[in-house]
């Protein structure tokens, strides 16, 4: 019997929108939920072909990540999903303790799955796997910028070795060209250098109940397992406020403005910030300042109001464009406290912008995206137009609706913020 509905679990918010974008490309109607929905939230999922539950489980304790993921699985089963996808970053962000291995093992055990594929490759974004080793734009993962990731530094490119440290099941790797699976392995890292390789991997997994990987393989797997295809959401499927957000009409005096919130420390985001502030007003947060996060947020919002009094052009607020300032904040507060202060500031700023009528936000960074969505109390979004590979505009299902571009720090070209504005709903 062909599968009809796909249930997905993603370990961070921007990774979830990345996954949604790939499924929309493949003609599926997708709704993304932020966290496991409460029964009283009444999110209408009836017309969705796929539902993605976005968690913030990538860098938390493994046992907590497992519990959240199993809760998400049970919710998706109650919705009617009969095939399941576990999405993590295409750079396999994790530590020796997890969380990729423990979560995958727990989902497999709950579903009665013995053999499990791991397919992180995303060739379109320069992530490829060869002989079980992960490359980023032709450079070994361990020699890329990911080696200095503040939470999950990736210092080993051998994904079989990385995965084996996280699971008691035997791990191996598979070449889609040889089409021979390792005889003793039940946790299999799949090679993929091109999209054709991903299609082959999806075909090999067509009878699997559960697949894990980056977002790129999801659209091919949806085809291979026969997930229904309803096409893009149309205006008739949206409420009035959603149509306003997508059609760009009937906005208030300030809701036409757009603000970029950049909290990522990645090289890609820093380049994007530098490019954008050549032509647009920019405010750089000083997280090392002794002032409270609330006071820093208030000062930031006052700056926004001053800028709006002069023009309606988009604004940029960044916390990590200057590496020296980031280093100073970590030296003063410690790594985790500095990160917590930064996200607290962004939460207050996002809430203040919404109170001032802003209905379009571009957010760079997975943690920052999660913070913003949480601060705005958005339970779910419909997936709209793609800005760059893996990054779509999304629109909240509530009222008033808010349009968001939630970008992983490493995604997008130097002019990503401009691209987002040009495709803005």
Which key terms come to mind for this protein?
alpha/beta; Rossmann fold; Molybdenum Cofactor Biosythetic Enzyme, Chain A; 2 domains; three-stranded antiparallel β-sheet; 13 helices; NBD_C_sf; kinase activity; ATP-binding
Question: How would you characterize this protein structure?
Answer:
With 425 residues, the chain is of the alpha/beta class. The chain folds into two domains: 6-225, Putative sugar-binding, N-terminal domain (Rossmann fold); 238-422, Four-carbon acid sugar kinase, nucleotide binding domain (Molybdenum Cofactor Biosythetic Enzyme, Chain A, 3-Layer(aba) Sandwich). 36% of the residues lie in helices and 19% in strands. The chain has helices at residues 13-25, 62-79, 100-111, 159-164, 195-204, 216-225, 240-247, 267-276, 293-308, 323-333, 335-355, 366-375, 416-422, and strands at residues 6-10, 30-34, 50-54, 83-87, 116-119, 127-130, 133-136, 139-140, 171-174, 187-190, 210-213, 259-262, 282-284, 315-318, 360-364, 380-388, 391-396, 403-407. The strands form two sheets. Strands 9-10-5-11-4-1-3-2-16-17-18-15-12-14-13 form a 15-stranded mixed sheet, with helices on both faces. A three-stranded antiparallel sheet has the order 6-7-8, with no helix packed on it. A hairpin with a 6-residue loop joins β17 and β18 (403-407).
What's this, in brief?
With 425 residues, this protein is an alpha/beta fold.
Give the helices and strands, then pairings.
Layout: E1 6-10, H1 13-25, E2 30-34, E3 50-54, H2 62-79, E4 83-87, H3 100-111, E5 116-119, E6 127-130, E7 133-136, E8 139-140, H4 159-164, E9 171-174, E10 187-190, H5 195-204, E11 210-213, H6 216-225, H7 240-247, E12 259-262, H8 267-276, E13 282-284, H9 293-308, E14 315-318, H10 323-333, H11 335-355, E15 360-364, H12 366-375, E16 380-388, E17 391-396, E18 403-407, H13 416-422
Helix pairs in contact: 1-6, 2-3, 5-6, 9-11, 10-11, 11-12
